[in-house]
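Listing 4. Sequential folding, example run.
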Amino acid sequence: MTENNEMEYIKPKITEDYQVLAALASTGAGFEALGGSSLMLTEPVENSVDSIIEANKKGLKIKGKIRILIDNKTEQVIIIDNGVGFTNPRHICERPFDSLKKYDPDLTGKFARGLQGFRSYCKRLIFITRRLEVPKEEVFGGKTGRTLKLEFTADRIEVGASVVPDNEFLQWTQGEFNHGAVAFYQEWKAGEFKKIRKDKLIRRIERHFGELIRKGQIEILVWEGEGVTPDQMPPAKDFYECQPRDYSGLTKIDIPNIEYVENGVKKGEIAFELYLTNRAKRDRESLPFLMYKDRPVGDAPIAEIGEFAETDVWNSSYLTGFIRADFCDINELRLALKPGPSRDFLYQQMENIEPLLRDIIKKHHRGLIDLKRSQEINMLVNKLQSFLKQKHIFDFKIAKEPGDLTLSEETDRVKVTSSTGTDIAYASSAQSGEPAIGLKPIKVQPQDNVGQGEEPDILQRQQESGGAGKGHAGNLTGGPDGCGQIVDTGGMGYKKNENGLNKSVPTQEKTLEGESSSATDRKVRKRKPRGFNISVQDDEFSDELSSFDPVNSTVIINSGHERYRKRDHPEDPANKELLSYISELYIWEICKLSGKSNPDMNVMDVFLKTKYEFFEAGGS
């Protein structure tokens, strides 16, 4: 701006305590509008993470540990970390909006405002910090020392500071570490503590710090209960360990990274980590978000950014993941990216890929419809064959038998694919589906005198295939099986040892049909199909409703016929009307097949009677 010599420039003056207090409290107002207490409590965890990163840069090479305790009895939240501690507490207190972290590109918190957010929720915030090093000439109340207590009060601008005995900090760490900070959020304003929800806080933390957890840089444990003191800390088993978001069972969308160049110099790149979900998810936590230096930008998904709020792609229930853009600048509250050329470039590239994503999502949605219909038809086949066998219409075995699969059963060995599909010759891992037997790699060393039991790290020897050492006939394999224990006189077994032999343990899995194009080298064993299956094929030029293929022992339903199409609803691929129609045609084909071997059988009468009994019995 050009200076105007005729104009007087007036600087704002914040001279009164109430003005300073209002400025300090403004951060809390932002949290109130965007996320409440769970978002506010994410801030001290953010500070803990930055402190841990700083500790590693100083050469400690530690794994970050953060403990969050919600004490319903005393109505306080305690957060413990093993970072470097408060390295310059006087600066934090005297210059609350001037963060020393702003000069470190590896640290996310740069504006020193998150610390002040407590003022909207509780009246008192106390820190006890034990530092790796004490700043030169640092004195509080005439004393100096490694352990310091800082007390913030919501209605005062002054911060109480005093040197305290080291045990004030160490008593809360249970001997795990001897440096870091403990924060106590106390004296919550009316009704605010009761609004804290452990599950909501966990979801936010897992979303916000998931990538750092995935990389093994930090662990975050959360506990909620009644009454906690240094002498009565909850045992480790009572804590919940936060987990990164698991994308392993989802289908990744292959989009190449896009470089961002400014004045001929590469400043970074856009990395797309977007995935297709196996079912529609309506919650905002699953929608895609922007990622800045391993942490989400703000609390909102892309769908809630103004420029993309009306876009169907970013609001799709089948799309999840994140877009990484470390070359952008983040705003003072870390709630959004700063406007500028870098953000404009990012947003333009996101708009450019929308048509591609829209097409992929539509195809994926159609595939899920076909998959759901296929799964429903498989269950229908089981039901139909069981019913027809009971009625002695036709003597065939059920296509898929219920129950767990054992190693002694006759099975097919099929390749595992990374995505679900409709190809029965392949299998994809799933939370539910058909049983299968897989192999889990493990390292062990031989161990004498092992018998049946539940001793940790002790495994029995699998004497025979299918038998797991329990008496079934088969070929000697010598691999480890289920849990065992060391006894006085037992057989040869194994003990887990990371430096031992490479072996494999049979494991029970659940699988769906796979997609051949995404086949991997891993294999599992599945039951061989039995009985007569149903295949849906489109032949709009045929008047036949259905037919029977004797080569593949399959009833073929003509999905191109007008009668089928009238019952085919895209949003309800396995609706009752369609399944009833398929059931009727299946019964008709089996009755016809049965009539060929029984000339005295009146096929039409048997069909009508059987169909009536099946539907009366609630078969469809």
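-- end of first protein; second protein begins --
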Amino acid sequence: MLYWLPRICVLAFAGLLIGFGFVPDTATGVAHTLLVIVLGLGLLSLTLHVFPPERH
């Protein structure tokens, strides 16, 4: 569950941004925002793959 928690939080944050209208109205602005979110999730996945959390 700890592995999926950051992804769920980021997707919920993205949903709130889009839902409350904090994203630009143009399709280009929305595309750039979603691209940044996807790239952030990719970097998070890469970081967790390279530096796995310690198991207790």
